[in-house]
Structures are given as C-alpha cells and as structure tokens.
C-alpha cells in the first residue's frame, strides 16, 4: 500500500476508536442532567443514587475519550501536512475554538460536578452538569463545522497558493454542516438512550434495585423513542442535502449509474463497479429515488455516468454502509416502540429486556457506518472539489506510516478494551447501596 492509503487507514483507525467514546459522552450527559434535575426538584434519594451510578460510567467514558482525542489532531501535522498548509487558515481556526472554548468549559465544569458533591449547593451542582452537557455538544458543533467545511467548502478565497478564510459567517452557517451536526447529535443522543436502557435491562432481568431502574427506563424510553424518530426524519433531510450538494455521493449510496428522471428505487441491488452497472436490480419502486431525493417523481437524479471516472467514489463500501445504517435505524425505531408499549411493566417482559441488552453495540456500528458513507462517499476529495486526498498527504515514507499505524492500533485497542471492561464492570456492579 502507498503512503496515501496507509495514512487514510491510520486516520480511519484513530477516528473510529475515538468515536467509541464520543457519542456516549454526548448522549449520556443529557440524560444525566435530566436525572439530576429530577433529584433537585423532588429531593428523593433514589434519584441521587441514579445520578451517581450513571455519572461514574460517564466519567470513565469521558476520560478515555479525551486520551484518544488528543492524539487524533496531531495527525494533521504528521500525516496530512500538505492539507494543513493548504487549508489550515480555515480548518485550524475551527479546531482552535473547539479546544480553547467548548472543551475548556466542558472540562472545568465536569471537575466542579465530580468533586462538588457536598461542597456546593444542589442548584450549583445541577448547573455544572447542564453546562457540561451544553459544552460537550458545542464541542461537537465546532468539530462538525470543520468536517462540514470539508464536505461543502464555503467562505474562502484562493490566495497565495492556499485557501484562506474570507467569511467566517459563511463557514458557521454552512447548511451541510448544520444538517450533518443534527444528524450526528440525534444519533449520539439515541445511542446514549439505548445504552441506559440496555444496562437497566441487565439489572431488571436480575431484579436488582428494581425501583431505581424502573424509574431510569421511564426517563430513557420516551427520550430514546423521540430521538429514534427524529433521527429517521432528519436522516431523510440530510440525504436530500447530499443529493443537492454532493450528487455523486448520493449516486454511490444508491448504486445509481444512469442519469434520468422518474428514477426507481430497487429493494434488491448489488453493484458491479467493473461494468459500471448493477449486477442485480430487483423489486423496483417506480419513481421513489426521485421522490426521496427531490420530492418529485419527475426530478432528475444524476447517475455515476454524469461524473468523470476519476471523481467517482468507491461504490460498494458506500452503498453497503448506507444500507446498513438505514437498516439499523429501522431496528432502533421498532425496539424503542416495543419498550414504549411495555413501559409500565417492562420488568415483566424478559424478551424485550434481552433485546435492549443485546442491542447496545448496534448504535455504535450504525453511527460508524454513517461516517463511512460521509467520508468514503466524498472520495477522491479530502476537501470536496477543492483538494484531492492524494495531494494532501505528508511527504513521508510508507514505512514510517506502517510503524505509526501499528502503534496506534496497539494503543487504541488497549484503550478500547479498557473502556469496555471498566464500563461493563461498574455497570454490572450497580448503584451504591441505599443509605
């Protein structure tokens, strides 16, 4: 493999490992803030025990997430120095704001929350966790602004052989970035909901602390169901944004080869990239792809034949990742509806509880499939139609990247296993005994 592919693999490994921690942080902290709000409003000790239990899991996940995130940004200097030199004026400013503002706020108030029990008032302590929740999601916003700019570059001029910022307002109002942010946040909050439901299901199956975990699921079920539905609705909107701004990505997502109107959607499809067609096309729904993409059966949907061969993204991984993501979204809605239906006596329905327990890994896989669509579907561009990935890599020998890739895999695997072990250990241990 050449240095470009090795650098892409290294970045993919580090991003995916880091993203084990990010969505749970974003989702769990919101539920944690809701739980503590209930404690402050009611004064019931059971809610305080609930908050401390889920808070311990949140801190474990957050701490390991910080460790994996710090090393991630260094790759822009080590592996992608030409990219950093070309667009650093824009990309660097967004990352700098995230680190110096949102992440700093998040870390400071998390410290207040962790060490503030019995040292600050209940209301101040509650304010701290809400500020952590807000700052965490603001931190994600600035990261998505940076990635959204790579997907749809706006607010720049080409000057002195590089892209320079011309309108910060255009960058932070980028419609692609905002759509991508909402899609990411809804998915992360939903993941947090399913994590809480899954762990609670484990305890309810064993009749551990039934009152506490019954209250927990009654908080998490409507939250998770609402987010599952919002994610599906917003996902449809985001696909329409992709159709408008990145038509070749949409064509790869649907394995759509020929430009036309009244384009059907095939329920059974298999791409044949070598022949530039589908090896299998069966069970068509007439006009559905045109309707889904542009709300009209008569709308033209560009096929992969409308683009130069060297600008077509890898079709099979984009197509399969998109299909997997959509399939998981359907599973989440059905399972959340089942939990809602049995919410009053969920502890008496072991099949639903087992399904909630076993589904814990699936939101992670669904989110990672979504990011696979976003990143592979943008190729061959690192900045869409502005800079190719092959032009962005650092001038380093492939052997150096092999070495760093192996090191990252070893270290990140250890951290990933450690995170799963600690979360599993303390999740099974359960809340502190009632005073």
UniProtKB/TrEMBL annotation:
Domain of life of the source: Bacteria
Record keyword Hydrolase present: no
Subcellular location, record wording: Cell inner membrane
Keyword Transmembrane in annotation: yes
Membrane topology: Multi-pass membrane protein
Transmembrane segments: 15-39, 51-70, 90-115, 127-150, 185-205, 217-235, 322-343, 355-374, 401-423
One Gene Ontology MF term: metal ion binding
Gene Ontology CC entries for this record: cytochrome complex; plasma membrane
InterPro entries registered for this protein in UniProt: Cyt-d_ubiquinol_oxidase_su_1
Alphabetically ordered keywords of this record: Cell inner membrane, Cell membrane, Electron transport, Heme, Iron, Membrane, Metal-binding, Transmembrane, Transmembrane helix, Transport
Biological process terms in GO annotation: aerobic electron transport chain
PANTHER family assigned: CYTOCHROME BD-I UBIQUINOL OXIDASE SUBUNIT 1 (PTHR30365:SF0), CYTOCHROME D UBIQUINOL OXIDASE (PTHR30365)
Stated family: Belongs to the cytochrome ubiquinol oxidase subunit 1 family.
Protein name: Cytochrome ubiquinol oxidase subunit I
């Amino acid at each position: 493999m050449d240095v470009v592919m090795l650098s892409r693999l290294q970045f993919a490994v580090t991003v995916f490992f880091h993203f084990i921690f990010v969505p749970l942080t974003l989702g769990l902290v919101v539920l944690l803030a809701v739980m503590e709000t209930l404690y402050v409003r009611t004064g019931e000790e059971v809610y305080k025990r609930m908050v401390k239990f889920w808070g311990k899991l949140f801190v474990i996940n957050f701490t390991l997430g910080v460790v994996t995130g710090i090393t991630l940004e260094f790759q822009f200097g080590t592996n992608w120095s030409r990219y950093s030199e070309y667009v650093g004026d824009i990309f660097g400013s967004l990352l700098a704001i995230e680190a110096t503002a949102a992440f700093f706020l998040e870390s400071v108030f998390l410290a207040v929350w962790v060490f503030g029990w019995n040292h600050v008032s209940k209301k101040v302590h509650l304010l701290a966790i809400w500020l952590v929740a807000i700052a965490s999601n603001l931190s994600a916003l600035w990261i998505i602004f940076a990635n959204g700019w790579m997907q749809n570059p706006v607010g720049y001029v080409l000057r002195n052989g590089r892209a320079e910022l011309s309108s910060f307002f255009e960058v932070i109002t980028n419609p692609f970035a905002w759509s991508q942010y909402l899609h990411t946040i809804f998915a992360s909050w939903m993941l947090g909901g399913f994590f809480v439901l899954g762990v609670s299901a484990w305890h309810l199956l064993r009749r551990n602390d039934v009152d506490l975990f019954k209250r927990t699921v009654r908080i998490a079920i409507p939250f998770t169901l609402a987010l599952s539905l919002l994610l599906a609705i917003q996902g449809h909107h985001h696909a329409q944004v992709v159709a408008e701004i990145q038509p070749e990505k949409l064509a790869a997502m649907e394995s759509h080869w020929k430009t036309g109107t009244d384009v059907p959607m095939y329920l059974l499809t298999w791409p044949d990239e070598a022949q530039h067609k589908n090896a299998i096309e069966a069970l068509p729904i007439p006009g559905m792809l045109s309707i889904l993409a542009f709300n009209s059966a008569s709308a033209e949907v560009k096929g992969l034949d409308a683009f130069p061969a060297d600008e077509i993204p890898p079709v099979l991984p984009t197509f399969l990742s998109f299909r997997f993501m959509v399939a998981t979204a359907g599973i989440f809605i059905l399972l959340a509806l089942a939990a809602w239906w049995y919410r009053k006596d969920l502890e008496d329905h072991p099949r639903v509880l087992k399904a909630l327990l076993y589904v814990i890994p699936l939101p992670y896989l669904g989110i990672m499939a979504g990011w696979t669509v976003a990143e592979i579907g943008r190729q061959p561009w690192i900045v869409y139609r502005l800079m190719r990935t092959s032009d962005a890599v650092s001038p380093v020998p492939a052997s150096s990247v092999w070495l760093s890739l192996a090191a990252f895999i070893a270290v990140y695997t250890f951290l990933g296993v450690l995170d799963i072990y600690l979360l599993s250990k303390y999740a099974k241990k359960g809340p502190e005994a009632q005073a």
